[in-house]
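Consider the following input, taken from an annotated entry for Histidinol-phosphate aminotransferase ([Clostridium] cellulosi).
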Amino acid sequence: MNDFICNKLKRLTPYEPGINDCAIHLDANESCMELTDEMKRKIGEKMLDLHFNRYPDPLATEVCELFGARYNVPARFITAGNGSDELISLLFGVFVEQGEKVLITEPDFSMYKIYCSTYECKPVILNKNDDFSFSPDEMIELANKEKVRLIIFSNPCNPTGQGISRDDVLKIVENSHCLVVVDEAYMDFWDQSVIDCAPAAKNLIVLRTCSKIGFAAGRLGFAIANSELTDYFRSAKSPYNVNSLTQAAASVFLGEKDYLPGAIDAIKRSRDRLYKALKKLQERYNDKMHVYETHTNFVLVRFNDSKDVCEKLKAFGISVRLISGCLRITAGTEAENRTLIGTLEKILEHN
Ligand SMILES: *Cc1c(COP(=O)(O)O)cnc(C)c1O
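Applying the prediction step yields:
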């Protein structure tokens, strides 16, 4: 059987989405806010008007216009994707040739490396410092020295929660002789976006997603870039990549004026509460844990034995993500955060 499987697939380390039967899921950076019944009813009404026998709008025009209106970018610079994951995959397929180099930082979103390997590109790794910071100058120098075709990094970063300033990102874009892809999956929770610069920049692609702000089920992401890059992107993507159900639901999700700002604020408040509670725990167990600062909807915590803490949390019905020797904990509802903190207290007391 294995003779039909090429070597690049045999080398692949698969992405493992956190599937488990825990009652409390704080492992996938989803929003802790479920859509309101009123929003769901409006989406239901849209479904009644949908032509299920017809293909979707290939350019998801209405959705791109609504996203563009919300983020102040004209729709002609926007490509919609089946999650930003599809767009990341497409980037490697469209803008990089087999054997060419791609600069990736470590740690960063694990899919970059996976697509790098399936598209047979060569990763050039910039290792972050022990505190998970990195120097933009070092990134520029490495990219230019190695003649990479593309740089990709998340800002703010999954899994570290940290980010670099807008000025630093623009410095990288201006001084690197390659495409720079800034994955702003978590930028709804921070204020250092460069999305406004993408339409006029020669070599910048910004990625956004609706997954972290309450629409993970819909699978909808966006790439923002100048019109030449956008044309290539659109002509290379699979034609009906965003299905009609998602487009209809997203027209409500993105279109309801007052819904999203409130939802994003609520997620940020939950994140702040979780961060403060973890910091307080750190004051008591300073020798056992370290909490990193965050600009996202999760908090990264290093425990002396993170794997052990992860397994014990799971035994109590709470799943978090073990990554880079730390636990990445998504901000949950108030009750979920409280249960998590209480359970961690119990675990640390006995460890
Ligand atoms: C979650 C995440 C994505 C994937 O988003 P989808 O739109 O759900 O595919 C992309 N990049 C980063 C850094 C993420 O954390």
